Amino acid sequence: MSLGHGRHYLSIPGPSVMPDRVLQAMHQAAPNIYEGALYETVEGMLPDLKRVARTNGEVALYICNGHGVWEAALTNALSRGDRILALNTGRFVALWADMAQKIGVEVDLLDFGKASPVDLDQVEAKLKADSQYHYRAILVAQTDTASSVRNDISALGALIKSTGHPALLMVDCMASLACDVFEMDAWGVDVMMAGSQKGLMTPPGLAFLYLNERGMEARERADLVTPYWDVRPRVKPDVFYEYFFGTAPTHHLFGLREALTMLLEEEGLEQVWARHAKLSQAVWAAFEAWSMGSAIRLNIKDRRYRSHSVTSISMEAPHGTELRKWTEQRAGVTLGLGIGMAQPDDPARHGYFRVAHMGHVNAHMTLGMLGVLDAGFKALKVPHGDGALEAASRILSEA
Ligand SMILES: *Cc1c(COP(=O)(O)O)cnc(C)c1O
């Protein structure tokens, strides 16, 4: 028997749950794209997009997903033959770096494995050894969505500054913007990219490239950029049409406008961060209880380095895959699969899954998802510790 009829919960790390209000804002006839309200919508949204990233720098909008804006970030900042340092803590920066290599950038990849944050000592050693300042940029993700590690971007920015190295700090905030604390200007981030479909609660298809003054200076000498992806007209358009270099993504913009109002005007960005922090603590408390005397493991051991938007879990294969099937068919909860986590004894990653707690998620959704997992462990006879729901409930009861 399925108990999944009712509202389905897609608990995967993007696309995230879209608020009904975002969907309703999109449900309207196509607007005039040559003048009027649409112009005000876009121009009014730019300051809000900057507020979300805590920056006074520039922001460009692109009609694409995260991979598209990865390419925009690279091509607007770099030239053929430039050297960069890429800091991989799971999966995503390796993919971004691979793209850089394919367009003619020399990449030094520092890989910190599948369950650890960036080790700042290693970065410091690399930067100090680079006395000729060959590195043009350093690539990192705030949250790696595969490992669910959360890197300390503030500390990395401070380290780069302390070494005096001029490399640009380029950060992938795809899975963390509007979920986790992020201070672009205060932390010394030069280039940042993000997309619409995670913390910003809007359908996939819009992405954002942020650049500070150093980032915009880098654009002046970058020779990899092509006309469509050029950030310059997009941040300082002579005519409206240049914001998107063609037809604006009208309905995505309507949705995003509503999402920004919900995040900034109604809840408040710091409260959004605090909600994500609290919900993630409840998720961790549950998994810590389940892991007692069992093979269930949080992928990231140290709480300080756990993402506030996604949690990666390992268990004995094939229990991860079985559990995902069970929760979806029986209970109406879709979990994320374990990406980038293949091991020699588990090439198909059947021992992994991920839960998202990003975006439009509240206490009852989180407790509901955890309750379904508890039932799934029991139904599938997956060994698990006791008291997980009690532990999560206690966290949510506390101020
Ligand atoms: C989701 C994600 C991406 C890729 O985004 P797409 O829209 O799927 O291209 C890149 N980096 C991180 C950290 C992500 O979480």
TrEMBL record:
GO BP annotations, alphabetical order: glycine biosynthetic process, by transamination of glyoxylate
Record: residues binding substrate: 354
Post-translational modification N6-(pyridoxal phosphate)lysine, affected residues: 198
InterPro entries referenced in this protein's UniProt entry, alphabetically: Aminotrans_V_dom, Aminotrans_V_PyrdxlP_BS, PyrdxlP-dep_Trfase, PyrdxlP-dep_Trfase_major, PyrdxlP-dep_Trfase_small, SP_NH2Trfase/AEP_transaminase
Gene3D superfamilies for the chain: Aspartate Aminotransferase, domain 1, Type I PLP-dependent aspartate aminotransferase-like (Major domain)
Pfam families named among the record's database cross-references: Aminotran_5
UniProt entry keywords in alphabetical sequence: Aminotransferase, Pyridoxal phosphate, Transferase
Cofactor (UniProt): pyridoxal 5'-phosphate
A GO molecular-function descriptor: L-serine-pyruvate transaminase activity
Domain of life: Bacteria
Aminotransferase class V domain mapped to chain residues: 74-340
Family: Belongs to the class-V pyridoxal-phosphate-dependent aminotransferase family.
Full protein name: Aminotransferase
Lineage of producing organism: Bacteria, Deltaproteobacteria, SAR324 cluster
